[in-house]
Each structure stands twice: as structure tokens, then as C-alpha cells.
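Form 7-S
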Amino acid sequence: MRKFNLLALFLSGIIASTPIGTVSSKPAPLKNTGLSVSNTSEVIAKSDYIYSTNIDYKLYTATAGFNTTNSAGVMGITVKDAGGDGLPTTLTSITFSISASTSNAIKTAAIFTGGVKVASYIQVANGATTLSFSTGSGWPVSAADGGTKDYELRVTFKTTVTDYQQMQFTVSSVTELAGGSSFAAPDGGGATSSISGNINKINVTADRFKFGQQPSDVFTGNKISPSVTVKAVDVNQNVDSDYVSAVKLNITNPTPSCDTLAGNLVFASGGIATFPNLNPNVAEDGITLTATGSLTSKVSNSFNVNSAQYSTLLSWNFADNNVYADAGIDPIRINRFIST
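Output:
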């Protein structure tokens, strides 16, 4: 049998590479050896996302915990990896721009994927114009090479909101994990939530009346000024802006009556009933009004209706700077008018 000196053969060039099956001390090459790392990943609005509509905000005002039951979904996004480099796109932070009015309504916000919270929820201050996320259990999450990963933005609400306010969310900044595919633009493409129809509109449903402008003292035959107003509100005192039903004011103290109160029936507009011609024609102290209609009634503060004769019989004497009245006028009444 012919013998060979392997070292000699190697040095002479006959054996030019390591034979198959031999163990090398060098690390295995990366999957994308010879390929350029992609920088064309993007964030897009999730095409089949089911938005919340006419949101009953009262269902989502929890002060503890944050899950898919006690929050409302307001935007779906998809991280889209361009593919071709063998590397994933791993989202490490994301920021949404919002209006100040939206932040006035939102209490907390969080990012979910597959129903699981992956970014710790954040408290939202009134007047804020951004929502930023970067850390949390399960974060970051990757979109595989050439694949996609869906996320959802969910929120809870403060107790003071504006009826039919429509919220919109726009991706304004994204960052990715170094060493993988990267985004084509700093905002990932600027995905924006839909505002079609009633999507992401806050809904207030009134169940009670509330006096806005309370009644003030008046003389019989005169209109109460400023005009009394009654609001249609919910449990949190938010006005139901599409309430347009009739509202009636009755005198309920001391003698229940509506016949002695002119201009006491109007229709609400924008959830507010205004009574510009409210004219009580019976003098009485400590009167209260009750607002009635299709909602739970409400009693006003008390006020006085003074007899018109006292206002016409009183006179001012500039010489001695005193108030005088004709004989027979109750001096207690006069003093009360002077004090007011």
C-alpha cells in the first residue's frame, strides 16, 4: 500500500481545503452571509383590524389592571419585514402622536399582541400629544424575515370626556433591534388610524338632568335672567350632545304648579335646554323648580319671586340718600330689597 504524507500534500497544494466531516474551530457563518441587511421594513395600519365604534367609555375606566376586557382597542398595526436578508425586524420602541383633546379623554394606554400585553401601560396626562412605549413583559417581539407581526393599541378612559369626540392615532417614531432588519423611515411609514364614520368616537348616554345655570331672584312679570339651563348628563356629569328631547320646568316648592310659570317647556339642543322666557307670575319665597322629561328629574336651588308692586313703589331720594315707599308697604320687604 502506498503511503502519503498529508502535511506534505497540504503544503504542496494537492489538499486545498478541510475535508468534509472534519471539525472546525471557526463559528458557523450567519444565514445572510453575502446578503445586504435590509433597511426597508415598515409599520402599516392593520388592514383587517376591527375598530371600536361609539365607545361607551364608562365600560373602560378601570383604575387597576389593564387587559383586553377593561380596555378599548383603538388601532391595529402590522410590522412588515421586507425579507431577503435572513434577519427579522424587531420592534424595540414605538410612539404615537395624538391630539391634546384625545389625551384629555384617555387615562392609560398599552400595546398588545395576540391578546397579550407586551408593553407596560402608561398613564396619559391631560394635554399630552404623544404615547410612547419601549419596555414590558414579552417586549420586544419580532417579525420574521419576510414576515409580519401584528400589534394593537388599547386604552382606558378618564371620567370626564366629550361626547362624540373622535380619536386618531398616528405612528410618529419607531426603533428596531441592532443587527437585524431596520425600518425605511424613522416613523416606519407613519401609519394612521381610521376616522371613518363612528370609528373611535366616544359616546355619552344621558340618564339624568342637571341644572347648568340655576334660577335667580326675579320680580313677577319679569323673565329670569340669566336664562335657566338644564343639561342632559350621564353619571359622570358629561353632556349627551345629541339629546334633543323636551324638558319641562315645574314649580315644586312650596306649591307644586306649572300654570304660574310661563315659558317652562323647551326642547334641548346639543344636550342643553335653555329657558329664555321663564316668567313666574306668583310672588313667593324659597321657590324650587324641577326639571322633568325622559330622564331622571332634578330639583333646582331655591330662589325668590318678588311682587312687582314693591319695585314700582320704592323711590330713591337723592337729597338724603334714603329709600322711601308709599304707606302700607311692608318695611321688612323694603329692607330685603335694599340689602340685595
